[in-house]
Specification:
Shape: globular
Number of helices: 23
Helix content: 40-55%
Low-confidence stretches: 1-36, 551-561
Radius of gyration: 40 Å
Largest sheet: 6 strands, parallel
Distance between the termini: 132 Å
Mean pLDDT: 87
Strand content: 5-15%
Length: 561
């Protein structure tokens, strides 16, 4: 066994002593050598603090996990940019087209719009498209063949406004003819929205209606006494069929006809949209005959309507008697039902909530129902304001010299909203402006009769502009097609695109006008359209109600006979 040599080497090699076992850093010597170079101890206060901090970090290595957080917190405190008791707010930018900014756009485009003299005579050049196979002409043939004994009486209740009731009437004629039944003049259901107690003969010429259909459908204005005696003269005792919407015509044959033969009278309430759009040719022919030939407005309505059409033409001499009609749906109930937000602020919010509760109690406040006004606007479901209609028409090339007839009810907040439209179209007229108070007095408190006047004036305009969906424009488009060779002569704007244009603060007048002219041209190209499956015959009368006349003038019938 060798002893360790503790003296300096004398040239001879001796075994080296074994290494000392490594100690934990916690128990390592804290001798003079320390961790500073040259074995120096920290002398200044800063060096001592750094030494203490470094020692703590080395002893507690887990604290390194929090080093990034400590660093960031220190930087923020040093810069003084945030306090720990403040929660940062994230501002979301609204999606394009989701906010009503049309007034700002109008102020921006107005100078260029007023100085633009490049518009051609738009009202005489708007319709350029024609059907490649030739024009269409009405060709609904009346039946000359008698019919067998009636299977019983059908009594229907027509609900809704003027044109929803019109749907019920025409469908009732078709069902009665199909079942070989006698139709009782429809009863109009009183509705809390329209508040119109008018009867059939207040709006339509009842005698003309019965006489036009006399060879096709039996129609009476009263149920025979001997039948009513069985039900104690109370219609509520008559069996009522609750027919589902858009029911096929076969349902009436299979489910209703047996009960009709047994009872001799049946009641269907409500009846709007209770017959499928697609039906056999014989049923479609009856629909055509009822809508386009048999239904004529009553003499008082026709007389005033014809007077207003003549007055509009007199005010349109600079355009050879041509004028535009616009169906504007900016009444309070429509604005409320749309759930869209405009620029009326808190006053608008209070008005709309009250209108929704009056008309549709509880419908919009059901638990779980979420209303997103921005999404509604982006999807093109918001009614156009008067200002937006004016901007659109000016962009389509119609200038201040254009005569405009405005078909509408009472415009919401009209003192404010109608001002810009009158600025853009000073020749604008309404039925209230064209007619005297004495002339309007018999119709003023009856919404359906007032709508019938608007319908007739719009029917005879050179251009019809629809700004919102619904039965009124759909029936008018079909009726105009029936009168004008198959072309609806109707401008139908793409409201999804309009929402984007109206919400674009960077758009210029020339760009905006180019978009509007493209939209106008698209409406022209879609003026002549044929009915497709599930389309309404009241909007698309070709080919069921009309025949095509080719270029050579030979009629080629595509209608039912």
């Amino acid at each position: 066994m060798h002893t360790y040599n503790r003296l300096p080497s004398s040239g001879h090699t001796t075994p080296s002593p074994p290494h000392s076992p490594l100690r934990s850093p916690r128990y390592r010597s804290r001798g003079k050598s320390g961790r500073f170079p040259g074995g120096q101890q920290p002398r200044t206060l800063a060096q001592r603090l750094a030494w203490v901090l470094l020692s703590v970090l080395l002893r507690r290595q887990g604290i390194f996990l929090f080093a990034p957080l400590i660093y960031i917190s220190g930087m923020l405190l040093y810069m003084g940019t945030v306090s720990f008791d403040v929660v940062p707010v994230i501002h979301h930018r609204p999606a394009p087209g989701s906010v009503y900014r049309s007034p700002q756009l109008y102020e921006k485009l107005r100078p260029e719009m007023e100085s633009d003299n490049s518009s051609a005579d738009a009202i005489t050049t708007v319709w350029k498209h024609s059907y490649k196979g030739g024009e269409w002409r009405p060709c609904v043939n009346n039946s000359s063949v008698g019919f067998p004994e009636s299977n019983g009486y059908i009594y229907i209740e027509a609900n809704g406004g003027l044109n929803q009731q019109r749907t019920s009437i025409c469908n009732a004629v078709a069902v009665a003819g199909y079942l070989n039944a006698t139709l009782v003049i429809p009863n109009f259901h009183y509705h809390s929205i329209w508040r119109d107690p008018s009867k059939f003969n207040d709006i339509y010429d009842e005698d003309y209606f019965i006489n036009t259909l006399k060879n096709d459908v039996r129609i009476v204005n009263k149920i025979p006494e001997y039948i009513m005696e069985r039900f104690d003269h109370n219609m509520s005792n008559v069996f009522n069929f609750r027919v589902r919407a858009m029911a096929p015509v076969q349902y009436y044959r299979d489910a209703i006809l047996p009960r009709l033969l047994e009872e001799q009278i049946i009641r269907i309430s409500p009846f709007a949209n209770r017959l499928s759009s697609d039906a056999p040719p014989a049923v479609q022919r009856l629909r055509c005959l009822a809508n386009y030939e048999a239904l004529r407005f009553s003499s008082p309505i026709l007389a005033l309507s014809d007077t207003l059409v003549a007055r509009m033409k007199d005010r349109s001499t600079n355009n050879s008697g041509r004028f535009i009609s616009v169906h504007l749906r900016f009444e309070e109930d429509m604005v409320a039902f749309s759930c869209c937000v405009f620029d009326g602020g808190e006053r608008e919010k209070i008005d709309m909530n009250a209108a929704r509760e009056r008309g549709w109690r509880g419908k919009f406040t059901k638990p779980g129902r979420v209303i997103r006004p921005g999404a509604i606007r982006i999807n093109g479901k918001c009614p156009l304001t008067p200002l937006e209609v004016g901007l659109m028409l000016r962009g389509m090339g119609f200038d201040k010299s254009t005569s405009v007839y405005l078909a509408s009810g009472k415009i919401y907040n009209s003192e404010k909203t109608m001002g810009p439209l009158f600025e853009m179209f000073p020749l604008l007229q309404t039925k209230e402006m064209l007619a005297s108070e004495e002339e309007l007095a018999p119709f003023k408190n009856y919404s359906s009769r007032m709508a019938a006047i608007d319908y007739t004036v719009c029917l005879h305009s050179e251009v019809f502009v629809t700004t919102q969906g619904g039965n009124f424009p759909h029936f008018l488009m079909g009726h105009r097609r029936y009168l004008y060779g198959g072309h609806s002569k109707t401008i139908r704007p793409d409201k999804r695109k309009l929402a984007l244009y109206f919400d674009n603060p960077n758009i210029g007048w020339k760009t905006f006008k180019r978009h509007m002219l493209n939209m106008r041209a698209h409406s022209d190209s879609k003026g002549i359209e044929l009915k497709r499956p599930n389309d309404s015959i009241y909007t698309f009368p070709c080919p069921n109600c009309m025949c095509r006349t080719n270029v050579s003038g030979d009629p080629r019938s595509s209608s039912v006979t």
